[in-house]
C-alpha cells in the first residue's frame, strides 16, 4: 500500500512519471488492484513508459479480475473498440455489466449505447434502463442520451417535456450536444440528433451511427413544448458554439445574419 501511495505521489508530478511507474509496478506485482489500474493508465497514455495498449490492457485485466470497477470499465472499453485486445462486443458487455453493477456510470451509459444500437442485441428496455441509471448519477452524456430517447419516442413514449428536463440537466453541466438540442427545441420545436458513447474516463464522446427519425406515435405530452423562443434558442446555440460545436456555430451565424434571436 505504501508503494502505491508513493507511486501516486510521483504521478502527480509530470517530471516524476518514470518513478511513479517504478513504484506502481512494485505494488502491482504484489496484487494491488489500484496500482494495476494506474499502470493501465500509464501504459495507455505513454506516461513514464513507452505507450503500449497491449500492456495497458494486461494490467487492466488483472485489476478488473479483482473487482476494480474502473478497470472493468476500461477493459470493457478496450474490447468494445479493439484497443489493446481483439474487438469483442460480448466481452465488452460482460465487463461493462460487472462495472455497472458497482454503480459505474460510464459503464451503464456504454451498455445503453450497445443495446440501443444492436451491437450485441437490440433491447430498448435495457437501453433506457442503463441510460437512466447513469443519468440519475449525473452523467451528462447519459442525461443527453435519455433526453434524445424521450424526444423521439424510442423505447419510451415520446415526451418533449421529459426530454427537455434531461437536456437541461446535461446542458447545465456544459455538455454541448445537449445545449444544441435545447437550441433546436426552442428554435424548431423538435430534435434530430444521435446519442453519444462514454469514452474511457477522459471526457470524450463519439456519435452513434445514424440519425433518429420522428415517431408516428402520439401521446398527450408529445408536442407539449414551450413557445418557440428565438432568443432562448440562440442562447443555447451560443453556449454550444463556444465549445466549438459546428452545427451550433452555423445556427448562431445564421441568427446574426438574419437578425433572429440576437441584437444586430
From TrEMBL:
Classification via SMART domains: SEL1 (SM00671)
Listed name of the protein: Uncharacterized protein
Species lineage: Eukaryota, Sar, Stramenopiles, Ochrophyta, Dictyochophyceae
PANTHER family in UniProt: DAP3-BINDING CELL DEATH ENHANCER 1
Highest taxon listed in the record's lineage: Eukaryota
SUPFAM superfamilies assigned: HCP-like
InterPro entries, sorted: ISR_Activator, Sel1-like, TPR-like_helical_dom_sf
